[in-house]
Amino acid sequence: MVINCSPLKQRMLDVSACGTFQLIQEHPDVVPHAEAGEFLVSFREVDDLLERFNHYWLNIDHRRLVASRALADNKYNHSFLQKGMELLDIALN
User: Fold this and answer.
1) What domains lie within the chain, and their CATH numbers?
2) What residue stretches are annotated with the Spore protein YkvP/CgeB glycosyl transferase-like domain (predicted)?
3) Which of 51, 78, 66, 72 shows the shortest CA–CA distance to 21?
């Protein structure tokens, strides 16, 4: 389980590419890129972090499900191949 306080989207993608569950601090540049609870779990304050940490620590299957969804989303929607295809689509259209 990773607690991610970085405002960089790339850090979120790096952790999800490892198939690791992460609790990520809410930030306007990072959190809107994923659906909360489906691909990642966000928190605002320390109390919120502690509550979510305890919940996911005790519910390992739910934690694994979120991590697996984040890994799949990363693999199919944020790979270098996907980004290259998006860039070519923009350049050619």
Assistant:
1) 2-92 (3.40.50.2000)
2) 8-86
3) 66
Q: What pLDDT shows up at residue 93?
A: 86
**Mean pLDDT, residues 27-41:** 70
Q: How far apart are CA 93 and CA 88, in angstroms?
A: 8
* Dist CA 15 CA 30 (whole Å): 13
DSSP 24-68: EE--TTTGGGS-BTTTBEEESSHHHHHHHHHHHHH-HHHHHHHHH
The pLDDT confidence band at residue 9, using thresholds 50, 70 and 90, is confident
Residue of 38 and 58 predicted with greater confidence: 58
